[in-house]
Amino acid sequence: MPTLHDAEHDASGMLSTLRDAFGTRVRADEPLARHGTFGVGGPADAWITVTGEADLLRLVRLAQEHAWPLLLIGNGTNALFSDAGARGIVARMDIEEWHIAAEDTDAALLVAGAGVSLPKLINDLAARGFAGLEWGAGVPGTIGGAVVSNAGAHGACVADTIQSARVLFADAGEAAEAHVRELPAAELELAYRRSRFREEREIVFDAAGRPTPPPRALLEPPRMIVGATFRLRRDDPDAIRERVRKYRQHRKETQPPQPSAGSVFKNPPGDYSGRLIEAAGLKGTRIGKAQISPRHANFIVNTGGATSADVMALIALARRTVYERFGVALELEVELRGDW
Fold it and tell me: At what angle do helices 237-254 and 118-128 cross, to 10 degrees?
């Protein structure tokens, strides 16, 4: 397969071909700031929403055939998009169908697409008396992103209930063409805020504490969650709703209301990133229009008009200062996407 450096794509020709295949869903020069909860990021040459596996495979194969850079994303709740945007195509996974595949008096199997909204799903499941995912109440993410990061809260996480995931394989190392395959939970390699998919997107920090994403690839990520199956248990709908209410209230009381991408850093073993950043005296620090939240120091918020560079500067400052003061090298939880 050609490399990204070989991809001398003609934006107008690319857009024309994409519109022939996907119609009005294709947009040119789409600001990525519209598609991430930070509210920052430059334009993508082409933007498209994919709504099913057939859509996804068709797009990937077109990109491979024409050597167009293709960046696949979720709903942008855990992403920091570059001010430069992204050359080529940015495609949002918007597979939103879900159903209960099997159920008995005590349990059920949930099958959900990668684009299913976690908060909305939890509401629907509560009304039907299915428990197991309510820890995600108020988490503004999707099933796909939750699996990639093994998301969790309140002592529970994705790994507790996931049975399997449907995964797109589209990298150069695959002998066959792009395809979707079901992987059992054991092959997802889930750990605290980790999975095999996050390991493939490792962020390196330089001496100044500035994060550097891996070089862009022609197709990234080469493996993407398309959907997942979870084991749920039966419970009283009112009891589930009460847990959901408490979790949402806790989130409202402890997390900032301004635009952000959630926790910036993973918690180090036996400690909390927010505590370390606050102890380093950085809570409330501003660079440009970005700020380390006065409410929770592990959140960086957009106070209005922030740039990716502002956010990146605060990330570097926080990591460098915590390391100098406490000898703890914080790991980034937010993903860096686009052309840095």
Answer: 150
